[in-house]
Design goal:
five-stranded antiparallel sheet, 8 helices, 51% helix
């Protein structure tokens, strides 16, 4: 019997249940802290390679101390845009990371039919991405951020893992940089009101005196 099995057998005994639960709680805390460290580190790494974008951490709505992903916003503020993102999602009894382009707010039917949006959507579909009401494009990654293999790799070969994960986002932006820029510009144009001409007070006075 190896040491690992001996420990498992020890915790399986009824009289050791309180200790087993205490250890489980501590391990859950370690997993959570490592998970947060992963997203913070990934955010810093991606921030250095995406000019024109602001990178922000995504928090769990119900538990702000729990980080669940990151997203990018254009440096120029606009009412609606497509934002590159990466996030973890519950999948049965585990978590899996997915990434893609998410709508910042629900688009209108007309906005969905914009030529630049259709072109970008088609390009992602050809690359195997899926779509739904919230996402123009999304795809599962190979990462399960709470699993033992992922956490062990992050603790031992963290830089290599972070480089791989960052490349998912950076490659997405590199391949579709121009098309995404055109799509967000087209969306911005749909929210701009008609141009308003301005006339100086002096000119108004002259016109009134005529």
């Amino acid at each position: 019997m190896n040491e690992e099995q001996a420990v498992l057998d020890f915790f399986a005994q009824k009289q050791n249940l309180p200790l087993a639960l205490s250890v489980a709680n501590q391990v859950d805390g370690i997993r959570q802290e490592m998970n947060n460290d992963f997203w913070r580190s990934l955010c810093e790494r991606i921030s250095t390679g995406v000019p024109g974008w602001r990178v922000a951490i995504t928090e769990d709505r119900n538990a702000p101390e729990c980080l669940v992903g990151l997203h990018l916003q254009p440096e120029q503020d606009q009412k609606i845009y497509l934002r590159p993102m990466m996030e973890q999602q519950f999948l049965g009894n585990t978590l899996r990371i997915y990434y893609g382009l998410m709508w910042s707010t629900a688009p209108s039917a007309e906005q969905k039919q914009l030529s630049a949006i259709q072109t970008l959507s088609h390009a992602f579909q050809e690359s195997g991405f899926k779509n739904n009401e919230s996402f123009l494009a999304w795809q599962w990654s190979v990462y399960y951020p709470r699993d033992m293999n992922f956490l062990l790799r992050f603790s031992i070969h963290g830089d290599a893992l972070l480089d791989e994960a960052a490349d998912l986002m950076l490659n997405l932006l590199e391949r579709q940089r121009d098309a995404l820029q055109l799509a967000n510009h087209a969306l911005h144009e749909t929210t701009r009101g008609p141009a308003v001409s301005t006339v100086s007070l002096d000119k108004l006075r002259v016109n009134l005196e005529r």
